[in-house]
C-alpha cells in the first residue's frame, strides 16, 4: 500500500490490522420453557422479520413456471464502488405481495452444510430448521415497490396462438443501492415473504470492478498536538478460515452474519500544523487511488478555541426501500446536516459517543456505515467512544451481560476506529483540543471501585491543567440521568463516578444510549445544586465561577428510533429541556465560555441553546 501526501503532509508509518470478528464464548441461555424465545434477544441483537430469514427452511419453490427470470442492469459489466442497480424480475404469472428480491454475498453460497449448522443458531432465539443459503442476505426489497407490478401493467406475451396471446406474464423493476464490499454478489428472487421464503430465480454472480479498491477513509487524532493524524481505510479481500471458539452458542459475527472485512490499514500523517488544511490521496498503483481529499487538523490543546460536533446512537439506514436487519431511520438526515457543517469549514472535530454502526455481527453493515460517514469522517477528526452495541456480550468482561454486540465484542469497532487508547479492549482515553480537555470512557467496561478504568479516570481528571484547557468535558455512552427511560441510568454507575466528576469540576457531561435530547441543571445525586440564569438574549447560562456540579446532557438523537417523552408525567426537577427530534450537538469553546446548541437535522433549526461561562481558571 502506498500513500500520496500533498502539501506538507507526510506519512511516516503504516500499520496493517486484521479485523477478526471473533465470537465470544457464551453461557447465555434461552428461556427454559419457550422454544422460540425471540423476545429475549429483540432489544439486543436487533431481531426483525428480515433478520430471522437465516432460520427459515431453504428450498426451491414448487413452481413449474418456465418463464421466470431475473435480470440485473448496472452502469457497466461490473459493479462500481457505489451505484444504484436496477433489478427486473420477469415471467411472473401471478404477482404477489410476498415476492421479493435479496442481495446475497458471497454468491457461491454452499447450502450442503446447513443442516450441520442448525445447533449454532440458538443464540438468536429462533430454532427453526435451516439458515437461508448459509449466508445472511445483505438486504431485501419487495417487488411491489414497483407500483406497476401487482397490477401487471408491464405485461409480456410468452406464447402466441396466431394473433392471440395464450400466455402473458408480468415484470417488475426495483432499484438497489450497492457499495463495494469486495466479494461478488448475487440477486435472488423469492416468494413467500420473509416468513416462508423459497427461491424462484437467481441472477448468477456479479463482481465488483475493483474489489481491491481502497475505500472509506476516516481520520482521527492520535494526541493533543494537532500535528499528526491517523488515517484508516479498507482495501481488498483476503482468504480467511475461522478457527471457532469453544462455544456451543456462537454469534452472528461467527457465522451467518460473517462477511470478509478485507484488510484494514491505518497510517499516520506527521509533520502537520494544527488548525491547518491539507489534502491527501491513498492507494497504490496496483489497487488504485482514491480521489484527493481535503482535511483539517484540529487546534492544539491550549489554543484559544475549538468548534466540535457531538452525538450518539447514529447507525445507518438504506438509501433505497430495502429491508435490513437493523435500521436507524434518522441517520441519513443527520449525516446530510453534518456534511453541511463540515463543508462550511467551521468544524474542527466530531465526537460519536457509542452505538456507532449497529452492525451487531452483520459485517457488511459496517461497510455501509463507513461509506455513509466517509464524506465527513475523512475531513475532520472522527473521535469515538464505545457503546453497548459494539462491546457487550455474555461472559466477556463487559459490565452488562447482554449480547448487544452480536458477538463482535468490540473487535470490529477498535479496528475500524483506532483511538489513542493505552491497549486493546481498554477503550478509554483523553485528548485536548483548543480550550477543552475531553475525557472519553467506556460505560461497558468495569468502572467500579478498584477497577483499572476508574483509577485511570481519577488520574486523568486530576491531571487537567485549567490554565491551559479551562473546560473539562466528560463523555461516555450510558447516561447518569434520563427522564424518558430511568432504567437506562445505572445507579451503581452513578454512585461510582459522579463524586469524581464533581470533585474535579467537570463542566459538561455528555451521554447517549437514550434516543433523544435532554439537558439538565447542575445536578448531583439527583438534586439541582444550581440553575442557569437567562442572559440578555434569553439564553440559559451556567456560571462556573460559582461551580457546584456538572451540566449533564443526553445526546443520543442521531439516528436510532426516537424515545418519546411522556405527555402525562411531569419531568423531574433536574430535567430542564426535553426534545425527541433527530439532530446533533454543536459546541464552540473559547477561554471564557462554551456555547452549546442542539440542531435539528431536518430543518437545521436550533431547538436548544445554552452556555457555560467562566472568568477565572
From TrEMBL:
Keywords noted in UniProt: Glycoprotein, Hydrolase, Secreted, Signal, Zinc
Superkingdom of origin: Eukaryota
Subunit structure, interactors included: Homodimer.
Residues spanning the signal sequence: 1-27
GO MF, any single term: acid phosphatase activity
Compartments where located: Secreted
Enzyme Commission number(s) from the entry: 3.1.3.2
Name of the protein this chain belongs to: Purple acid phosphatase
Organism: Linum tenue
Enzyme class: hydrolase
Cofactor: Fe cation; Zn(2+)
GO cellular component annotations of the record: extracellular region
UniProt keyword Glycoprotein present: yes
InterPro entries documented for this protein: Calcineurin-like_PHP, Fn3_PAP, Metallo-depent_PP-like, MPP_PAP, PAPs_C, PAPs_N, Purple_acid_Pase-like_N
Catalytic activity: a phosphate monoester + H2O = an alcohol + phosphate
Purple acid phosphatase Fn3-like domain sequence ranges: 79-210
Purple acid phosphatase N-terminal domain boundaries: 254-297
Ranges of residues in domain Purple acid phosphatase C-terminal: 549-609
Limits of the Calcineurin-like phosphoesterase domain: 307-517
Family designation: Belongs to the metallophosphoesterase superfamily. Purple acid phosphatase family.
